[in-house]
Amino acid sequence: MSTAIYPGSFDPVTLGHLDIIKRAARQFDHLIVCVMINSEKHGLFLPEERVELVRRVTAGIPNVEVDCWRDLLSEYARKRNATVVVKGLRAVSDYEKECQMALINRKLNPNLDTMFLPARQNFTYLSSSVAKEMARYHVSLEGYVPAEITEDVQKKMDEYLQKSQS
Ligand code: ADP
Predict the structure, then answer these.
(1) What is the mean pLDDT of residues 51-73?
(2) What's the CA gap between 28 and 17, in Å, rounded?
């Protein structure tokens, strides 16, 4: 059985991420979307909230599992018997960073290779940061994050802004 991992922060999951998830899920028997927890980086959503949002938007894809991990990705791949890391590439600027990470991951776990999928053209501008910026200024989130989670993202941003003003 081929198992691939799609890692990221997913703070929150965007339509660009979901497109990569759907395309990768067609290529592997089992795809694990892994929310990587970075204790240095505080996101808008808590890790378990990000997992819940990704689960909600991928509920209809039977071979997709959602998990989270706070250690090295190469270790997680070993634990889950995964041999492939899937990454989406939006621009040349993504490539440099992702290539370096792919080489490090293979050094740490020689059974682990990285496969890149080019971002769909209409999502190349899209990142979680852009989606959050839109929410901050109350621009409609349609076209940025999946419809099932637009309200959650807007509500979370409103709460965050309210807290930071008080
Ligand atoms: P972001 O850059 O949006 O904060 P993450 O850290 O969650 O995203 O990224 C996880 C993975 O998703 C990375 O491989 C990143 O290149 C990819 N990715 C992010 N946004 C898109 C997009 N719009 N289209 C395709 N891939 C994307």
Answers:
(1) 97
(2) 16
